[in-house]
Write a structure and sequence with these properties.
This protein has 2 helices and 7 strands. The chain has 127 residues and is α+β, with helices and mostly antiparallel strands. The protein has one domain: Beta Barrel (OB fold (Dihydrolipoamide Acetyltransferase, E2P)), CATH 2.40.50. Strands 3-4-5-7-6 form a 5-stranded mixed beta barrel.
């Protein structure tokens, strides 16, 4: 009887661990990585055609180290800020990792009146 209970606990632990891996792999809305374009391609499409909604794929340059409330993608020019609209945070240790982000581009006016293109992610998926 004790052997059956131990086996059941081991199996349950493995199942819960597998479910937990999926939850860690994605945060926020579901992200279809099949639809992804590189950050540079998505940024060009937004600047030329105004295509705001997309799924981006790129390398994370840095992450907010106080809360994980933003990250930046590496681009050809300057790193591009990705925020989450205060709906979720990401792990602080994902710099230099590949990431998919579902969301939309927008223009943000900074304090010095310059305009910066940013991306608001509604969901992220770690590669």
């Amino acid at each position: 009887m004790k052997g059956h209970i131990r086996s059941a606990i081991v199996v349950l632990t493995l199942i819960l661990g597998a479910c937990n891996q999926t939850a860690i792999n994605q945060i926020g809305e579901p992200v279809n990585s099949d639809d992804a374009v590189s950050v540079n391609v998505g940024l060009d499409a937004f600047q030329k055609d105004g295509k705001a909604e997309t799924v981006l794929f790129g390398k994370v340059a840095e992450v907010c180290q106080s809360e994980g409330c933003w990250l930046s993608f590496v681009t050809d020019d300057e790193n591009m800020v990705v925020d989450f609209g205060e709906t979720f945070t990401v792990p602080k240790n994902i710099a230099n990792k590949d990431l998919y982000a579902k969301g939309y581009f927008y223009r943000d006016t900074l304090e010095d009146k310059t305009i910066e293109i940013k991306f608001r992610a509604t969901g992220v998926k770690f590669k």
